[in-house]
Write the structure tokens for this entry.
Amino acid sequence: MFFYVYLDPEVFDVATEEGTFAMQSLIGILRGFVQNCFIAEFEDYRVQEAIKEKVNKIVDDNDRKAIKELLKIMKKRNRFIYCLIPDYAGEKSDLEKVYEQAAASYIDILLLKSAPLGTGIPSEIKTATLLNYQHTNFENGRASYACNGVTLKEGEIYEDAFLDQNFKKALRYASTIEICDKLYGPYFSANFIYSTKNLFEWLEKILFAPEKCKIVFHCQKPEGKTDSFMKDQIGGFKRGRITGIDVVLQFYELLNENNCLPHDRYILTDQIAVDFGRGMDFLNQLTHQNRDITININDLNQVSSLLESYRAGRLSPVII
């Protein structure tokens, strides 16, 4: 549902040189990136610095303002991921280093100034230019996920493949993963436990910097000693690279007849938000496959605001 792209700063020069239609094409592409893409960046911020310089040279006020606003949103949502290492010795160009690292960095497509020439780029790396981007399979798939989400029948995909396809790129660089499922506490058993265990095992493998990540579960406070049981169970799932990861059980209580949390279930990070209707019992422990589920992309600000509206019922957090 989410994708990694490399945006060559030279693309902005092409849009400026080729006129109104090229500039509008670039703005449209950036709007799509805001929906469900992350922009691959070098660890020294050189892509953003180069883009900033080129955008400031755009003469048309409306075009410049539109592009700055879209890039501002990407920056605010932490959608630049620092997965590329430049050649500090200056022996290879930035593009050559991108070609070398694109596959290992899970980059889906490179948006370039022009089609690459020669044999320097691996055959499996997809590229596009302003001229042909809208005709790529990548854009067709990206737009489909943004508009339609994912709906799966029971047992379509095995557990790790399900998590990889739907959440790997969304969660890999997250510094905070918040899971909002009202029923997670009161119904913590069976598939809920199994799904949690597999989620932690999977996160141990895919998180880029687990030592910088925190996981928070928002749910209704269960009756009896289930909260202690949850703490013990989830604590036992912290192994390997995520042994020291911060995990918080954020319980809520009913204040009156109103719900203590939203009916819908969400996963939100410092970068994205999705609703996943099934919630935290998304895997079947008997088949090791997905249960029927629908996943859609949401607006991060709106979901964060919705969750914050239930603050009155929030109890003291339980640290695991």
